Amino acid sequence: MANFITKNIPNTITCCNLISGCIATSFAFVNRPELALLWIIIGAVFDFFDGMSARLLGVSSPIGKELDSLADDITFGVAPATMVFAELAVMDYPATLEPLRQYLPYFAYIMAAFSALRLAKFNLDTRQATSFIGLPTPANALFWGSLIVGARDLLEASPYNVFIVMAMVLLTSYILIAEIPMFALKFKNWGWKGNEVKYIFIITCIPLIAFFQLSAFAIIIAWYVILSVCVNKTAKKTAPATTRRHRNTLCRSNGIIFAGPKTEATAHPYANIVIIQGKGESGITTVLTKTSQHGTAIIHHTLLLNLLGNKGCNKTLCDIQTDTQSEKAIRRSQQTVERQQPIRRQCPRRIRKRHFS
Q1: Tens digits of per-residue pLDDT, 225-242?
Q2: DSSP H/E element including 274
Q3: How many angstroms separate the CA atoms of 325 and 251, rounded?
Q4: Counting beta carbons within 10 angstroms of the beta carbon of residue 76, is it exposed (0 to 12), middle (13 to 18) or buried (19 or more)?
Q5: Are 250 and 169 in contact (CB under 8 A)?
Q6: C-alpha torsion sign, points 107, 108, 109, 110
Q7: N or C: which end of the chain has fewer CB within 10 A?
Q8: How far apart are CA 320 and CA 306, in angstroms?
Q9: Distance (Å, rounded) from C-alpha 339 to C-alpha 297?
Q10: Tens digits of per-residue pLDDT, 175-201?
Q11: Global pTM?
């Protein structure tokens, strides 16, 4: 009995999240955005603790993952979309759009559909363990909730603001599923190094909340997106330039998979080793030649060419980009490679030959 109760604690908390979303939606329908936002925040609290309780109790399950996505779509997708629906229903319209007044508010539910798509992608995307790709649904719900509650008079000041609201619905729906890396407020340590962006974000949020109060959360979410985009562009500019272009190697005999920069290669049914091209602090210097389905190896591209060339493995399949390294880094890599178990088997001759340029 105790085991049964423990096993269902996280799912119970997730159901509380779902119920909170339903209550928020009901308040949004009767044009009570303040209470709707309150219940969205309560749902966010439940959403935080259901995952934490599952990890602490060690009772995570596939059904919990699916239930969590369903609850999140109600609380952070349907509820804020209904708030926008109710706002569009009471806003003034230009004379040209007045005949469409009874239909245009339903435009808001596009956001609920994109929220569901974003949650489905999140469940399948292994890249989002420590960061996000696209705007998280709770952040989007908080943006719309605080905007409608805190800046309602501003939204209703002009009949032409309906175009702005509809454009923002489309924009936020796109950002939900966009391939835009966004940082998460998860700290592996509390030091400044490595957490600069997170601390800058938190520090700048304090005066915004003090000055704009409730509507500050909409500004904070917008600032979060802008900061993530800026950090992304800065990281791309500081990344090493790619100066050569090679071909991807897949040798089914000895099982080599060569992936592109900053990628995570998953297990291949024929793979004995997995090689990911990349760059570490001193130039990647590690090679694993005896691995199972979860095996991962990393090697500098010049060494890979030498290694494969020495073993007669020059069959190639798809393009990747590689970066140059200093001779010193290459020599350090070679010393590490020599200490590893060599690749013994060659690629089958039936694979079409393509030589590295």
Answers
A1: 999 999 888 877 765 544
A2: strand 273-276
A3: 25
A4: buried
A5: no
A6: positive
A7: N
A8: 17
A9: 14
A10: 999 988 988 887 777 888 878 888 999
A11: 0.66
97-150 per-position pLDDT tens digit = 999 999 999 999 999 999 999 999 888 887 776 778 999 999 999 999 999 999
Q: How confident is the model at residue 174 (pLDDT cuts 50, 70, 90)?
A: very high
pLDDT digits (tens, 9 = 90+) for 33-61: 999 999 999 999 999 998 888 888 888 78
What DSSP letter does each residue of 281-347 carry, written as one string?
A: TT-------S--TT--EE--HHHHHHHHHHTT--B--SEEEEE---HHHHHHHHHHHHTSPPP-PPP
Location of structure tokens 């190639």: 316
45: which 2 tokens? 């609290």
| CA atoms of 25 and 21, how far apart (whole Å) | 6
Measured CA to CA, the distance from residue 27 to residue 231 in angstroms comes to 38
DSSP letter at 105 equals G
**Closest to 51 in 3D by CA, of 186, 251, 141, 219:** 186
